[in-house]
Amino acid sequence: MDQADAEVALRRPTLLAIALLSGAALGLEVLLLRLFAIIQWHHFASMAIGLALLGWGVSGSVLTATAERVRTRFSAFFTGNAAAFGVSAVAAFSIAQRIPFNPPELLWDWRQPLWLAAIYLVLAVPFLFAANAIAAALMTFRGRSGRVYGADLLGAGTGAVAVVGVLTQLPETGALAFLSGLGPVAAALVIPGGPRKAVLLALAALLWASWVDLRPSPFKPLSRALQVVGADVVAERSGPLGRLTVVANSEVPFRDAPGLALTSPTGPPEQRAIFVDGEGPLIVDRHQQGAPPPPYLDHLTSALPYHLGERRQVLLLGLGGGRGILQALLHGAQHIDVTEPDSGHVALLRDELEDFSGHLLEASRVHVHIGQPRSVLATAERRWDLIALEAGGSAAGLGAAGADYRLTVEAFADYLTRLAPGGLLAVSGPIDLPPRAALRLLATAVAALGRAHADAPGRHLVMVRSWQTVTMVVSADPLPAGTAGAVRVFVETRGFDPIHFPDMRSEEANRRVILDVPWFYDAAKALLEVNAEPFMARWKYAIAPATDDRPFFHDFFRWALLPEVLALRERGGMGLFEWGHLVVVAALIQAVLAAVILVPLPLLIAGRRGTASTPGLSRPRTLCYFLALGLAFLCIEIAFLERFVLFLGHPVLAAAVCLAGFLVFAGLGSQASHRIERPGRAATATAILSLAYLAGLPPLFEFLAPLPTEARGLVSVALIAPLGFFMGMPFPLGLAALDARAPRWVPWAWAVNGCASVIASPLAGLMALEFGFSAVIAVAACLYLLAATVAPPATTALCKPDTVLS
Fold first, then answer.
1. How confident is the model over 747-778, as pLDDT tens digits?
2. Which residues neighbour 626 within 8 Å (Cβ) at sequence distance 6 or greater?
3. Cβ distance 123 to 32 under 8 Å?
4. Residue closest to 246 by CA, chosen among 233, 229, 259
5. pTM for the model
């Protein structure tokens, strides 16, 4: 096919096929986040997605080696790869979930990194086929890269939103079948009689996908619970935020009451367990409507705030299994607000579990609000006597990589401002030894009180521990004089130990649940000093407060710990560490190795023919330009997605809005890229806008937080539009410059960009863990400025608008 034939062939059905295939590929990336959260742990899902982009990098190298054949047989090449995407999307996931990978063994079983690498490579296959088809269109329709790249990004943005909608209507395997069917449909659009064949091919893909089932890891809590004699799944719901599974066991009943006082006269009633994506459990107590709540709830450390004064107005930040509601009702709360981000979770308790839980959510005193805690707080007018939340733990040692905006300094400061006079903030969580989470909780509270200009934070705080849990209570005002006596009665009658309360004496610490050294008391005393920085710097773990810029509450890792971590690999001591930090490092190393080995391999096989330096171009500068663009684009996308999670109050909503916004407006920018003469100008504009957003978004978000969710969604799209528009320009402008001077370099540039995307995902994650999301954005801006300095020179071809489509 010569150039004239290619121009004629670029019709709307071809662009639609490109958009469909791109949307299916991005939809598959988002869906894999859900699928792997269910069958493995969600911390590994994002890494798998990052290395799935390896397929896009390898495709550029493949096309470099087969450029002439692709140009002369574009239709056959595109349809074959699009159809192969549909088949391999199902096959790759089916194979990947059968690979015997177990994350908790990653650092001491040498086979686990190999199994993880195998998962990455298998998942790359469908993305390789999709990228082959789209890159072939970029290479074949020379001079029309803006149109093709624009259709690619517009389709990807639409796919990011569409897959969320699909997940509200179909189970995860049904969504996989739907996306796999789009591959054959895209193939059919570029061949004669395509629309008729598309229906048949899509039906075939749906049948092919129908036999796929989910196989959760046998090491997940749900899998272990189902292995117990008598265990039975009694209810299940699935949605974009998670798969909820309810388990009952009449033979070996659940007896979950973390930290229950050994002096408690009663134990918990019959219980059922809710597992979210196989993790948990969240416990639901049997309760009869109208009957008093179970009395054991007064013998948990979380009951402490109810013994420090009357708590009529209560806000619970998280529904869980409803235990917090029962505890508030037991202590006479008159109005209970509950925040819960997942409407499916609420529906589960209201429908399938309503009789078992005693119609708990139908009580006149209980009011459920769908949304993230801080989003609900921003729009609420009420003040509460108690705001309570559970800090949770670090699942499988991987929690370090997970952001938690409920437990940052800014969040605690927000909570304190929403308390009624005499109100309390209460945070409960599991005990860890050596101490770290409890100490970070205390450090975070001290920092939040410092923002409120509290001169003596120790007079605002109470913290107690049991043998398994810790509860911290914080007041915006100094605690009243009777607090010390109430705390003493509470801990003595229940066998708990105080960590801190106003006027506490050293001999009152470490008396009941005895440790060799009073670690908690000593650490609390140091953290409450005027300058606690030296103590935090000396402590074995990183316990400095989490912030909105670094919201990784469970990341306690220090690099100085690495020798000890490695020494404990084979001695059963890995449970002492939250090693998610190291997993991110391992993922980055694997990404770099895979990209360096696999992306250039076909180039080496094909040789260097046709890639010698061209006037105005050089291979190193071209490599640097497209590498910088690939790293910067994904870093900005990841960092701003996290920023918008806080503003929109919902991770899925933020993902849909941000991915769709960035990709759609980048697609529009690509379509309009012919209006800018020099690629460097677009890269410079993107860098300047990124830095402006870095400085301006936090105060703007704070000002706009009271808006309703719909309005915040529209504002988010409007904010993303300018930045996304300019982000879409440098890549097609660079491709057009290459096409004018060295057309054989075009697929090689695509490979370099894909290689950068492979590396960018774990690299951005590691930078965020170490330095915060602001640093990720700043680095991305610098990369765009670097791209501007090494950008290919403009050509007259860049100044001509694309021909109108026929």
1. 777 777 777 877 888 888 889 888 999 999 99
2. 731, 734, 749, 752, 753, 756
3. yes
4. 233
5. 0.86
